């Protein structure tokens, strides 16, 4: 059985070789790098748009022409054009959090030969404002900057990069790709939905596609739930292993393998009472206090309207994600700030509502259906949840969605909701032709976590776009470094839980590293799951095979479910 499973896995992974079997030729420049400084961008970004710098340098050891520029009024972008290795492909990468800085990093592409060999022209943008970790969101009071962040910056950056490609190489790219995670995943979907001809292949990881709810009701609730009357945290990071171990004891084996991961949270029946201390117990070293257990219950359940009882989010963190709550809404010490507060306050104050609420606090934020209704005003601007991707599909575009099942920032229920809405709108057969969804056991937000988070989706995407070979099994492995592609970094000063000066909240731990053995495992497009053969090392991919369909993540009824319905995008 082990040999049969291994052969089946190798056959399933064979599309990964398709790109290498039919390579595109290397094209070298026909113009000097310095000459790109004269490229006219006014037809793209309007008056004031220009290249501000063009110089030869190296990126990852690859000789490139680095071009920086501005698209009016304040969008900054950077393009890296290889001098010797360009294979006629373009890759644009998204930006996490509220962006505000240029990050030329492609994730979910570990081991991609074309990327590592400098085969792509690459580009990124700050999305029209500066900020990064110190971003308080005040730029959101500017209507133009809201539009640039919502969709305009990524679209214009694509147009500017393509113009530079034509000027530098004397020809356009053969294929264009977009790869982003977190808000970068939202940006990826926004491109596919609003500008279906911009990219041939789009990879959207853990997308913050429901921006209006994600950065208000979700993160505000997580912060609110772990804050006592004195403003101190109730549940602390050193208590999370108690909860996580109890979840594993109840649910680890539900997928047929005892491996320290909950691969099918929907099949998990966990009772918090089993790990809750009795009132007044002195020794709480092996159980959660009733107050701590109540925080965990609130995290799992999410906000509900106190009058109607209706849920106000599409989903919450899944069973098995508990260790990854640390650093997001569970701090190390009671007086430490919460990243969830940092995520919510800038958006609540300056972006999500019309009119703005610049004086809002988390203490006065109402978790009600009325709040959800008020968030609908800017849903057509910021959100990327429209399930009608017929224009993208008709243009030949391909889409890969992926999401870690242990993601504490964005529930995978959101991504599954979009996938199912696409099927309802376009039909399963049509969706099968251009989209895949991968749900990764034990993987946190855009990477890390207890599960194997190192993967390459860029190579199978190229095989699909360029060779017509749709992806099936994708290999995942333990990450060698604790990095997370597109994970947000929020600031906003002490009131938002930060320290100011561009630092994360005091006491927040670094991204948790997996405590499990090194492992490899295939993942398959939802609803299929990987199944352990029952023989050999459970941490070796050779002992896993494609299993039957499973629910994996439970979806629920809530009054915002129609936000995953068809709507008309607004331009401002």
Descriptive notes:
The chain is of the alpha/beta class. The chain has 16 helices and 14 strands. The protein has helices at residues 2-12, 18-21, 42-45, 113-116, 143-169, 183-194, 211-225, 240-251, 290-301, 339-350, 369-375, 379-382, 390-394, 412-426, 428-434, 458-467; strands at 50-59, 62-71, 75-82, 89-93, 120-125, 175-181, 201-205, 398-404, 435-440, 454-455, 474-477, 520-523, 528-532, 544-549. It has a nine-stranded mixed beta sheet, with helices on both faces. Strands 10-11-12 form a three-stranded antiparallel beta sheet, with no helix packed on it. It has a two-stranded antiparallel ribbon with strand order 13-14. Helix 7 (211-225) crosses helix 10 (339-350). Mean pLDDT is 92; it is low at 1-8, 17-21 and 491-509.
Question: What's the short story on this structure?
Answer:
The protein has helices spanning 2-12, 18-21, 42-45, 113-116, 143-169, 183-194, 211-225, 240-251, 290-301, 339-350, 369-375, 379-382, 390-394, 412-426, 428-434, 458-467; strands at 50-59, 62-71, 75-82, 89-93, 120-125, 175-181, 201-205, 398-404, 435-440, 454-455, 474-477, 520-523, 528-532, 544-549. The protein is of the alpha/beta class and 572 residues long.
Poorly predicted ranges (pLDDT <50, ≥5 residues)?
Answer: 1-8, 17-21, 491-509
Largest beta-sheet characterization: 9 strands, mixed
Whole-Å distance between the termini?
A: 58 Å
Structural class: alpha/beta
Specify the helix fraction band: 25-40%
Arithmetic mean of pLDDT: 92
Set out the fold topology.
Blueprint: H1 2-12, H2 18-21, H3 42-45, E1 50-59, E2 62-71, E3 75-82, E4 89-93, H4 113-116, E5 120-125, H5 143-169, E6 175-181, H6 183-194, E7 201-205, H7 211-225, H8 240-251, H9 290-301, H10 339-350, H11 369-375, H12 379-382, H13 390-394, E8 398-404, H14 412-426, H15 428-434, E9 435-440, E10 454-455, H16 458-467, E11 474-477, E12 520-523, E13 528-532, E14 544-549
Parallel strand pairs: 4-5, 4-6, 6-7, 7-8, 8-9
Antiparallel strand pairs: 1-2, 2-3, 3-5, 10-11, 11-12, 13-14
Helix pairs in contact: 5-6, 7-10, 14-15
């Amino acid at each position: 059985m082990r040999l049969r499973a291994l052969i089946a896995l190798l056959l399933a992974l064979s599309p990964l070789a398709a790109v290498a079997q039919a390579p595109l030729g290397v094209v070298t420049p026909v113009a000097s790098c310095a000459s790109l400084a004269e490229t006219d961008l006014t037809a793209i970004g309007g008056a004031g748009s220009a290249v501000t710098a063009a110089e030869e340098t190296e990126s990852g050891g690859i000789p490139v022409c680095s071009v920086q520029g501005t698209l009016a009024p304040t969008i900054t972008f950077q393009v890296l054009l290889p001098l010797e290795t360009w294979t006629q492909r373009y890759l644009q990468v998204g930006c996490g959090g509220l962006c505000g800085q240029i990050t030329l990093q492609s994730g979910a592409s570990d081991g991609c030969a074309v990327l590592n060999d400098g085969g792509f022209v690459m580009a990124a943008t700050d999305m029209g404002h500066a900020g990064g970790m110190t971003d308080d969101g005040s730029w959101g009071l500017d209507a133009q900057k809201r539009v640039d962040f919502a969709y305009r910056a990524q679209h214009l950056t694509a147009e500017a990069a393509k113009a530079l490609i034509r000027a530098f190489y004397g020809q356009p790219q053969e294929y264009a790709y977009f790869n982003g995670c977190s808000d970068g995943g939202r940006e990826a979907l926004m491109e596919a939905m609003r500008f279906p001809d911009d990219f041939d292949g789009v990879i959207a990881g853990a997308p913050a596609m429901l921006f209006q709810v994600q950065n208000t009701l979700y993160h505000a609730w997580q912060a609110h739930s772990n804050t006592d009357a004195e403003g101190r945290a109730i549940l602390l990071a050193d208590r999370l292993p108690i909860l996580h171990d109890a979840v594993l004891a109840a649910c680890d084996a539900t997928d047929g393998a005892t491996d320290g991961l909950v691969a099918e949270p929907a099949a998990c029946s966990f009772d918090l009472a089993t790990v809750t201390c009795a009132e007044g117990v002195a020794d709480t070293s092996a159980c959660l206090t009733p107050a701590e257990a109540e925080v965990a219950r609130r995290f799992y359940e999410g906000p509900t309207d106190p009058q109607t009882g209706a849920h106000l989010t599409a989903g919450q963190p899944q069973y098995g994600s508990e260790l990854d709550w640390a650093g997001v809404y569970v701090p190390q010490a009671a007086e430490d700030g919460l990243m969830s507060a940092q995520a919510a306050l800038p958006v609540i104050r300056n972006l999500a509502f019309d009119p703005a609420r610049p004086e809002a606090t988390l203490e006065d934020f109402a978790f009600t259906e009325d709040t959800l209704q008020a968030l609908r005003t800017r849903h057509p601007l910021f959100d990327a949840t429209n399930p009608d991707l017929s224009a993208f599909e008709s243009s030949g575009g391909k889409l890969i969605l992926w999401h870690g099942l242990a993601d504490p920032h964005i529930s995978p229920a959101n991504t599954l909701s979009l996938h199912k809405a696409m099927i309802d709108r376009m039909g399963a057969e049509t969706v099968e032709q251009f989209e895949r969804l991968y749900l990764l056991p034990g993987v946190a937000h855009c990477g890390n976590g207890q599960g194997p988070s190192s993967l390459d989706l860029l190579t199978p995407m190229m095989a699909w776009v360029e060779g017509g070979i749709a992806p099936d099994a994708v290999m995942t492995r333990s990450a060698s470094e604790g990095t997370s592609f597109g994970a947000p970094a929020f600031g906003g000063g002490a009131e938002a839980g930060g320290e100011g000066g561009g630092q994360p909240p005091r006491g927040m731990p670094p991204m948790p590293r997996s405590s499990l053995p090194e492992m490899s495992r295939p993942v398959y497009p939802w609803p299929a799951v990987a199944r352990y053969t029952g023989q050999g090392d459970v941490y070796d991919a050779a002992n896993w095979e494609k299993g039957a369909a499973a629910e994996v993540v439970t979806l629920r009824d809530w009054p915002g479910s129609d936000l995953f319905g068809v709507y008309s995008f607004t331009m401002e």
